[in-house]
Amino acid sequence: LAKTTQPISMDSYEGQEVNITCSHNNIATNDYITWYQQFPSQGPRFIIQGYKTKVTNEVASLFIPADRKSSTLSLPRVSLSDTAVYYCLVLDSGGYNKLIFGAGTRLAVHP
Amino acid sequence: AAGVIQSPRHLIKEKRETATLKCYPIPRHDTVYWYQQGPGQDPQFLISFYEKMQSDKGSIPDRFSAQQFSDYHSELNMSSLELGDSALYFCASSFREAFSGNTIYFGEGSWLTVV
After folding, report:
1. Chain B: closest CA distance from residue A103 (Å)
2. Cα B32 from Cα B94, distance rounded (Å)
């Protein structure tokens, strides 16, 4: 299983762009990278998922370099409500049906 | 859009009692996952089912068991409850197996408090 490493915490201010980088050095060829957001006492909420290059949706962008050993979640113009824990996970394509959560990034957005 | 439904949302049990949590996946999803998240901790994978068969097993105690039924809903049964079982239990679902980019969606969780 690909292990992920991401910053334990980050601070930002309202209106700024936030980039959270995750490393997954031993990602397998068929693995996908997926990001979740979690608020206290709530279920993880899917943000974005990708395989390579760049993926964008209405809330975030995901940048994945050619070697796929890392990925960067970009949150444009964050607000106070974006204060949460963000998890980078690798979808195990080896026949096992699960996501393994590592330590996420606690993002604090300040006024 | 329909989401993953979990019940009950809150449950209080005494030590050594039994608890059952239920999970109703998103319609047409055939894979269910269970996670446990203790206070201040990251979610830990317990077990998963695909097409009513156990597909993977994580750090699930022997006191716990789970199954997926013909309508794809799942139940997590926890016996001989201990104080350390107090946690938020998440169910998640996806369509087919969680590779090839299929997305896993989580429910809001069931709070279990053991006193």
Report:
1. 6
2. 7
